[in-house]
Structure formats: structure tokens, C-alpha cells
Amino acid sequence: MTIGHRIRDTRIKQGISQETLAELAAVSRQTISKWENGAAYPSGENLAALSGIFGLPVDALVKDDWAPPELQVVEVPVPRPRNYRLGALLAAVVLAAGILVGALFFREQREDLVHNSELESEVVDPSALGEAMPMLPLE
User: Fold this and answer.
1) Which of 19, 51, 60, 67 has its CA 20 to 30 A from that of 35?
2) Helix then strand then coil, % of the chain, to nearest 5
3) Cβ atoms within 10 A of the Cβ of 49, count?
């Protein structure tokens, strides 16, 4: 296969017309036609331009036995996603336990509280209250 055939095949595979390739390579359409028909050969500068346009190395246009290099597959380890829900649940349990421990061990005993047993036996004398505090009528 000649260089002209490789240029034509690559151009057709990439869906580029002769006119468009000529504009991109800064040459005339007739020059592209001459290259493809084997009537002329592109210069080194034009080969470099074609290589850039097609996205291929110059060897792909010049050599018959050129093959694209094999791609190496590199496996990248994917980090495990962090389980934020488990961390939030653990933090909530620790916080609740701390509040519970604080409430049980660090509470103050209030001595001015009146126990229910004392309330049942206590009788309030209305005359002791005086007229400053009106009483609700008993029903």
C-alpha cells in the first residue's frame, strides 16, 4: 500500500473531504488529489501536518507494517467508600451514653423539694396566708 492510499484511507475513515484536508494542511485540493493518486509525495513538513490532523504518528502514514501500540491496562485500586453512617451512629451512641452518665452521677440532690408523702398530710391554713393571696373557692 502506498503512502497515497494510506492518506486516502485515513481521510475517508475520519470522514474528512479533500477540500477540508487541504484547508487544514494549508495546501490545495489538487495537491491532496496528487498525493492520493501517487502523482506526488508530501514533503516532511506536510507529513508532519497530516500526522497532526489525523492524530497519527508519521510512521502510520509512511510505513506499511505500522500497527498501533498495544494499550497497557493499568488497574488502579479504588478506595473503599467510608461508611459515614456507622461513624455518625457510633458518635450518637457515645454522646447519649455521656449524657446519661453525667445525668446519673453528677446531679445535685435538692433539699428544698417536698416529697409526696409530706404533701398529703399537710394542711394549709388560709388565715396564715392573709389577704394578699386570694384563694380559689372549694367545690
Assistant:
1) 67
2) 55, 0, 45
3) 17
CB 53 within 8 A of CB 21: yes
86-95 pLDDT per residue, tens: 888 999 999 9
**pLDDT tens string 111-128:** 666 666 666 655 666 666
How far is 6 from 61, CA to CA, in rounded Å? 6
Write down the pTM of the prediction: 0.49
Q: Where are the domains of the chain?
A: 3-62
Where helices occur in 38-122 by DSSP H, the ranges are 44-54, 58-62, 84-105, 116-121
The CATH number assigned to the domain with range 3-62 reads 1.10.260.40
